[in-house]
Amino acid sequence: YATTKPPPNPSPLRNAKFFQANMRILVTGGAGFIGSHLVDRLMQNEKNEVVVVDNYFTGSKDNLKQWFGHPRFELIRHDVTQPLLIEVDQIYHLACPASPIFYKYNPVKTIKTNVIGTLNMLGLAKRVGARILLTSTSEVYGDPLVHPQDESYWGNVNPIGVRSCYDEGKRVAETLMFDYHRQHGIEIRIARIFNTYGPRMNIDDGRVVSNFIAQAIRNEPLTIQSPGTQTRSFCYVDGLIRLMEGSNTGPINIGNPGEFTMIELAETVKELINPKVEIQHVDNTPDDPRQRKPVITKAKELLGWEPTIKLREGLPLMEEDFRKRLGITRTP
Ligand code: NAD
Ligand code: UDP
Ligand code: UDP
């Protein structure tokens, strides 16, 4: 018998670059608009390995194609309403349709995604000891009676309306986050994101900025839903990593305090993108919040974050992206 042990079999994988990653990060909904920008940012850090889970309901593989085949990147087709077994250090939980036309399309599925999906991701976070960030929404403030909205406002939400699958769903998701935090000691972060826009938004997403820009490029009337005096505050896609890496649970508003009526937005899009386009007034949908504007003192003080791109600067960046994807160049 040989008395010396055989030398340890050096795994060829051990020296491969991707094993040097020291943080494995799960991004649910990573094929979507905000998720894919987040993935780009996370992938820029060589220490991160990024796993995206998405069912492609509103997202697209196209948003992630730049990372296909990268050793630190992995894409899994999976629905978060089903349990997920995986080993990760951090979870950015974004999976959920965000545009009213999509979240109202199958409201039962939307609320399952918010409730069961978030429960599953919290169960996963608990099992592996991961920190988890939820992208909640300004919709938790409903049709707000307090203006502008800071994080202490409890909101004014219709529990049985057609938007409830989304806004009540996110409210339950926030409750689950805090209950897992208090009961099981899970490290949580909650962002309440206000209307976000930017390149890569689904062209037929149905939200107002993408609608107006696509309409202006296609020379179709800009559809202002009545009365048009309702306001939103539009933020260029940004800011979640700071919240994850900081020490505050939140909720923290992530948004741009610049407030516009839909009429002002339509006029700005017209001026910047197509001065000849018509503006048309159309009916609105039920329970549309009349005003929305974030107080971002917490984001500034606790995260050192504030928006840097003004609407007039952000719209042309989105126009450029939409023109490329639609194949319509600007005519002088
Ligand atoms: P999006 O629709 O582009 O992305 C959502 C992604 O989640 C898509 O890729 C979709 O396919 C995926 N998804 C949906 N249901 C799923 C499920 N059951 N299982 C797995 N994947 C699923 O939307 P977005 O604008 O990128 O929004 C991302 C997150 O940010 C959402 O949680 C949304 O509620 C939140 N948010 C967005 C805004 C905004 O203005 N865009 C504002 C507030 C909050
Ligand atoms: N879960 C999951 N992945 C895991 C651990 C749990 O998807 O790695 C799911 C699990 O199926 C359950 C949910 O998360 O439905 C909540 O899990 P938890 O352990 O908190 O509760 P329990 O399983 O005891 O109900
Ligand atoms: N809106 C509009 N025209 C459109 C789409 C939306 O005037 O083509 C209005 C809508 O009535 C709402 C605001 O724009 O007051 C923002 O709607 P969006 O669906 O973008 O986001 P929400 O904040 O309602 O989730």
UniProtKB/TrEMBL annotation:
<comment type="pathway">
    <text>Nucleotide-sugar biosynthesis; UDP-alpha-D-xylose biosynthesis; UDP-alpha-D-xylose from UDP-alpha-D-glucuronate: step 1/1.</text>
</comment>
<dbReference type="InterPro" id="IPR036291">
    <property type="entry name" value="NAD(P)-bd_dom_sf"/>
</dbReference>
<keyword id="KW-0456">Lyase</keyword>
<keyword id="KW-0210">Decarboxylase</keyword>
<dbReference type="InterPro" id="IPR044516">
    <property type="entry name" value="UXS-like"/>
</dbReference>
<keyword id="KW-0963">Cytoplasm</keyword>
<dbReference type="InterPro" id="IPR016040">
    <property type="entry name" value="NAD(P)-bd_dom"/>
</dbReference>
<keyword id="KW-0520">NAD</keyword>
<dbReference type="GO" id="GO:0033320">
    <property type="term" value="P:UDP-D-xylose biosynthetic process"/>
</dbReference>
<dbReference type="GO" id="GO:0005737">
    <property type="term" value="C:cytoplasm"/>
</dbReference>
<dbReference type="GO" id="GO:0070403">
    <property type="term" value="F:NAD+ binding"/>
</dbReference>
<comment type="similarity">
    <text>Belongs to the NAD(P)-dependent epimerase/dehydratase family. UDP-glucuronic acid decarboxylase subfamily.</text>
</comment>
<dbReference type="GO" id="GO:0048040">
    <property type="term" value="F:UDP-glucuronate decarboxylase activity"/>
</dbReference>
<dbReference type="Pfam" id="PF16363">
    <property type="entry name" value="GDP_Man_Dehyd"/>
</dbReference>
<comment type="function">
    <text>Catalyzes the NAD-dependent decarboxylation of UDP-glucuronic acid to UDP-xylose. Necessary for the biosynthesis of the core tetrasaccharide in glycosaminoglycan biosynthesis.</text>
</comment>
<dbReference type="GO" id="GO:0042732">
    <property type="term" value="P:D-xylose metabolic process"/>
</dbReference>
<feature type="domain" description="NAD(P)-binding">
    <location>
        <begin position="26"/>
        <end position="316"/>
    </location>
</feature>
<protein>
    <recommendedName>
        <fullName>UDP-glucuronate decarboxylase</fullName>
        <ecNumber>4.1.1.35</ecNumber>
    </recommendedName>
</protein>
